[in-house]
Amino acid sequence: MSELIPTSKQLHDFIDDLEKCLNYEFKERIDCDNIVLCGMGGSAISGNVVADYCLRNSSKQIVAIMNTTLPNWINERTLVIISSYSGNTLETLESYRQILDVGCKRVVITAGGILEKLAKKNGDPLIMLPDNLHPRHSIGYMIGYIFGVIRATGCIGEQKDILECIESLRGYRDGLEDKENGLAIKLARQYIENIPIICSYSDIQSIIFRWKTQFNENSKYVAFCTTALDLYYSDVRWWSQGCRSNYTLTVILDKEGSISNDVSMSKMLKYLDDNKIKYTRVALNGHNGIENMFRALMLGDYISMYMAEIQDIDPSGVPPITLLKTKLKPLIEERTKDLL
C-alpha cells in the first residue's frame, strides 16, 4: 500500500480527481432496465450524490442502497455497481453474494481486498481506485467512475454541466483554504462546543448527509442533518419552543438574499424568522444548482477538517471504526470463503 496522502491534500485534490474521472469512459455498452448503487459508509456517499443528480436526468430508475437488503425487483436485467474502497466491507460483500445469486449485471469499484478478488474470479468489470486515500475522500474518483458506468447504459448523457463548473469550483476552493477569514474556518469556529444541525433542500440530501458523516469522522463530533421539508413539517415547532443552547442550526441556501423557489424552504425560513428562532444562513452563490451541490460538498469537508485542527486532533483516524473492522475480520473471512 502506498503512503497515505494527508487529509488537507485529499480535500484540495477533490476537484482535480472529479474532473479527471468524469472523463472516464466505460469500455462497453451495458444493456439493462434499472440500476442499483451498492455501498456503505464513505463508499456509499458517492452513489448517493450520483443518485441525487440522476433523479432529474436519468431515463432509467437508479437507486442507492446502504444496507444488505437489496430490492425485491432486481433481476438479471439489473445493473449493480458495487463500491467499497477497502473491498472488505461486510455489508457490501453480503450484497455481492445476493447479486451473484440473482445473476445481475455487475461492475465493481474498489481499491483492493476481498471484493477485488471476487470481481476477478467472476469476470466482473473492475475499476481500481488509488490505495493511498481515506475511503471517504475517494469521493471524486468514485463519483466520476460511477457516472462513466451509468453513461454506458445510455440513460444519461455526458456531465458537461459539472465539467463547466470545475474552474469556478477551483476558485471556491481557494476561498475555503483561507484559514483566517474564509467561510469554512468561520463556521468551524462557530460549531466548536456546539452540536451542528444542517438543513437544506431535499434534492441535495446526499450532501447534507455528507456534512453529518464528515463531522462524525473527521471532527469526531455529533451532528445531525435534515431537509427543509422535514424541518418545517416535523421539527421546526420544537425549535420554537426552545431547545438546548448548544444546538446550532445552519440552513444552506442557493443564493444570498434571494427568495427560495422551494416552497418548503420558503415556509420554513418564514417560520424561523417570524418566531425569532436563531439560525445561520449559508449562501453558496454558485452559477447554478449543480455548482451549488459541489460547493456545498466541499464546504462541509473543509469545515470538518478545520474543526479537527481547532481541537488538535487527527482528522484521518477513526479508531472505533478501525476497531470494529478488526473485530469483524474473522467473520468476514468466514462468510466469504465459499465465494473465493
Could you please describe the fold and organization of this structure?
The structure is a single chain. Helix 1 packs parallel to helix 5, helix 1 packs antiparallel against helix 7 and helix 10 (228-240) packs parallel to helix 11. The protein folds into 2 domains: 7-162, Rossmann fold (3-Layer(aba) Sandwich); 168-310, Glucose-6-phosphate isomerase like protein, domain 1 (Rossmann fold). 44% of the residues are buried. It is globular. Strands 2-1-3-4-5 form a 5-stranded parallel sheet, sandwiched between helices. It is built from 13 helices and 9 strands. With 340 residues, the protein is an alpha/beta fold. The model has no long low-confidence stretch (mean pLDDT 92). It has helices at residues 7-22, 42-54, 90-102, 113-122, 139-151, 160-163, 166-176, 183-191, 205-217, 228-240, 263-274, 289-310, 319-336; strands at 34-38, 61-65, 78-84, 105-110, 126-128, 195-200, 224-227, 247-253, 280-283.
Corresponding CATH superfamily of the largest domain: Glucose-6-phosphate isomerase like protein, domain 1
Individual helix count:
13
SSE string: HEHEEHEHEHHHHEHEHEHEHH
Radius of gyration: 20 Å
Name the features.
single chain; 340 residues; alpha/beta; Rossmann fold; 2 domains; five-stranded parallel sheet; 14% strand
Fold topology:
Layout: H1 7-22, E1 34-38, H2 42-54, E2 61-65, E3 78-84, H3 90-102, E4 105-110, H4 113-122, E5 126-128, H5 139-151, H6 160-163, H7 166-176, H8 183-191, E6 195-200, H9 205-217, E7 224-227, H10 228-240, E8 247-253, H11 263-274, E9 280-283, H12 289-310, H13 319-336
Parallel strand pairs: 1-2, 1-3, 3-4, 4-5, 6-7, 6-8, 8-9
